[in-house]
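Data deposition worksheet. Section B asks for the primary sequence of the deposited chain exactly as it was used as input, without tags or linkers unless they were present during the calculation. Section C holds the resulting structure in token form. Section D is free text for depositor observations; keep each observation to a single sentence. Incomplete worksheets are returned to the depositor.
Section A, Depositor: J.P.
Section B:
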Amino acid sequence: MDIRLEKFGTVLLTRDQGKPIRAKLLSLIRSGHAIRVLFDDVETVTPSFADEVIGRMLLDLGEADFRKNITLVCSDPATRRLVNAVLANRKRELLRS
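Section C:
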């Protein structure tokens, strides 16, 4: 199932913006859907938003279930680097716990 983040806005800045999106994605995953999160046509993503949605889902699901159920599609190189950095930080947090 494709989730186009642009439908939530093209400028994604805050954790408050990200919380309901993360809740929706987790609900879909827990009801048996694998999802593709598409960042296409999103102009701006901040580290706070990316961490609230993507990083926290990694913590909520664990790395194995995250990889099994979520595909991230970031065609913009800057967005891809940001999302990868967020995931790397949260993976380190998982390893410490």
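Section D:
Helices lie at 15-30, 47-61, 63-69, 77-96.
The chain has a mean pLDDT of 96.
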